[in-house]
Design a protein that fits this description.
The complex is a heterodimer of chains A (about 270) and B (about 325). Chain A has about 270 residues and is of the alpha/beta class. Chain A has ten helices and twelve strands. In chain A, the strands form two sheets. In chain A, strands 1, 2, 3, 4, 6, 7, 8, 9, 11 and 12 form a ten-stranded mixed sheet that branches. Chain A has a two-stranded parallel ribbon with strand order 5-10. Chain A starts with a helix and ends with a strand. In chain B, a hairpin with a 6-residue loop joins β1 and β2. Chain B is flat and about 120 Å long. In chain B, about 35% of the residues are buried. Chains A and B meet through α1, β7 and α7 of A and α1, α5 and α11 of B.
């Protein structure tokens, strides 16, 4: 018993030691704060930047709104937002630089004759107003709504673009893009959404308002189920050397491959 | 005179030698004893690693699971029918998850136990040695298949199959997870039941046969009752496996937090509730996930206590 108490004490002490070393902030680092949807792309960029320059990089996934606020209050170097800056935010002296575009493809089973949907129809489908494919020119089959889990960036993006937040009546909530694609490819009545870069031949991406999701249509804005990934900075305040290096690095041509690999369309391709 | 003296000297020498010998022996014994103690200590330490892990996990789960329950309210948490963790007005009711886990496990037991039990009786009593060895290795193989493989096969074969057979819009449902779980618990039920049935003394069966009972009568009226606590332990082991499974059910259940009102509904289990939201969670949502894990932990503790109870009874 005595030994056990001693062991437990040792364990606790070790743990408290570990707990102590989490928050040390290194000098000369770049801090980013904001959109959770940008986790993958900014994480990949940050890692590459760290390997490239040795300057340490932090990312605080708090959401677009908090990221923008954090820049405004000077709590971070660069804010990350997965929506355009609002007019009043721009008036408050914030600058937005688009890093990339996140296109979300609406996918159906290849057997499905439906090839085009409007954003309004998509919203009606996902909120349960339209429940059968025959209502929109398809076969007589119930529409099976496939989505992602709460907290997923793709779900957040899809729901904010189609304006269906908290209204979607999902039949399945899957935890990865791959699972969504597999499930849609298995079920002739299914509809799902997935990041454009990961769509494969096993499913069919429908055109939205007549526009197919390609890199060009996403970039020129004609494919509407998309949102920008914005780097937010404060005008009139100079970036630190490290943050400036990071900013230049991630908007350079070198970073393009990393951005594409993260499943989004880079805004600077040359 | 001289001889007497030399004898005395000889005696003294002998004494010294003897003393030296006992001293060496004493030293050696002392050393072996130290090694003995050290090894004892090492073994104790290794044993304590397990105990320490259990304690650590328990303490950690309780510490991180309590705050959310306190904030949400125990009754609202356990009996709330709605789960919307990321909504603007979040709701944290886990009754759908609890019921799904209970129904799913019960369904898996309902299908898995009869099949597993009959298989065990056949393998233990009726099968020829050849058949027994082949089938037993097949059962072991089933136990070794990773759960993600069960999930994958379920997703690609079972889910579309259910959709076509029952003519429902989508096959990912409570039924699909029950079937996957039933198959997953088969090996533990079969193996444990075989062990219990094999341990029934042959004299019992001989006596029954000598009294004129047929072999089947003997197996079901003598062997099975004699092995019943072992078989009950097998069932509880199955419950434990089914209630704790996450990966396979996540791939076939659909994961929508519905109340499980129908077999063909998309449902979310306690395990999948934790694993599907953990990666993006923060704040109260994350704490609530820990609370779900705590509830799950309680369920598993309960099944373990039941298992111990049955195993103890079998020993007596």
């Amino acid at each position: 018993m005595k030994k056990m108490i001693r062991l437990m004490t040792v364990t606790l002490l070790t743990l408290s030691m570990l707990a102590g070393c989490g928050n040390a902030k290194a000098t000369g680092s770049v801090s980013t704060d904001g959109s959770t949807s940008m986790e993958k792309v900014i994480g990949a960029l940050g890692e590459a930047f760290q390997n490239y320059t040795g300057i340490s990089f932090t990312y605080n996934p708090t959401g677009s709104g908090s990221g923008i606020k954090a820049v405004q209050e000077g709590r971070c170097d660069i804010g990350l937002s997965s929506r355009d800056l609002k007019a009043e935010e721009k008036e408050a002296g914030l600058n937005g630089t688009i890093l990339a575009y996140d296109g979300i493809a609406i996918i159906v089973n290849p057997e499905n004759p439906v090839t085009d949907l409007s954003v309004e129809t998509i919203a009606k489908i996902y909120t349960g107003e339209i429940t059968n494919w025959s209502e929109i020119g398809g076969n007589d089959a119930e529409i099976v709504l496939i989505g992602r889990e709460a907290g997923s960036g793709t779900r957040d993006g899809f729901e904010s673009i189609t304006d269906t937040e908290e209204l979607c009546k999902y039949r399945q909530e899957l935890t990865s893009t791959g699972d969504v694609i597999t499930t849609v490819s298995q079920n002739p009545g299914a509809i799902g959404y997935a990041s454009v870069a990961s769509v494969k031949d096993t499913v069919k991406a429908v055109t939205v308002n007549g526009v197919a999701p390609t890199e060009e249509t996403i970039k020129d804005g004609s494919y509407v189920v998309q949102r920008p990934f914005v780097l937010v900075t404060k005008s009139g305040v100079e970036l630190s050397d490290e943050a400036f290096k990071f900013f230049t690095y991630i908007t350079s041509a070198e970073a393009c491959d990393i951005i594409s690999a993260a499943g989004v369309v880079p805004a600077y391709s040359e | 005179m001289i001889t007497q003296q030399s004898r005395k000297i000889e005696q003294i020498h002998q004494d010294i030698r003897a003393e030296h010998k006992t001293h060496v022996e004493w030293k050696r014994r002392n050393r072996t004893q130290t090694i003995e103690y050290m090894i004892h200590g090492i073994f104790l330490l290794l044993g304590l690693i397990t105990v320490g892990c259990v304690l650590l996990i328990t303490v950690y789960l309780i510490i991180s699971g309590i705050p959310a329950i306190r904030q949400i309210g125990l009754l609202d948490f356990l009996f709330g029918k709605e789960w919307a963790s990321t909504a603007s007005e979040p709701k944290y009711g886990i009754l759908p998850f609890i019921l799904t886990s209970v129904y799913g496990t019960a369904g898996a037991i309902l299908i898995g136990v009869p099949v597993g039990f009959m298989t065990a009786v056949y393998l233990s009593k009726l099968a020829s040695i050849k058949v027994k060895s082949v089938m037993q290795s097949a059962v072991s193989l089933l136990a070794g298949i990773p759960s993600v493989v069960y999930g994958l096969v379920g997703m690609l074969v079972l889910v579309p199959g259910i959709r076509k057979i029952f003519n429902v819009p989508d096959g990912a449902s409570l039924l699909a997870s029950i079937i996957v779980l039933a198959i997953m618990i088969l090996p533990s039920i079969i193996k444990m039941s075989i062990t219990a049935l094999d341990a029934v003394p042959k004299e019992y069966e001989d006596a029954s046969l000598a009294l004129g009972a047929t072999p089947i009568e003997t197996y079901f009226k003598v062997s099975v009752p004699a092995a019943k606590s072992g078989i009950a332990a097998a069932v509880v082991l199955g419950v434990g496996r089914a209630i704790g499974e996450a990966m396979a059910v996540m791939m076939v259940a659909g994961n929508v937090p519905n109340m499980p009102n129908s077999l063909f509904q998309s449902v979310r289990f306690l395990t999948t509730a934790v694993s599907s939201e953990m990666s993006y969670s923060s704040g109260l949502q994350r704490q609530a996930l820990f609370s779900i894990a705590l509830v799950l932990f309680m369920f598993i503790m309960l099944t373990n206590a039941m298992l111990n109870f049955f195993l103890k009874r079998e020993k007596e």
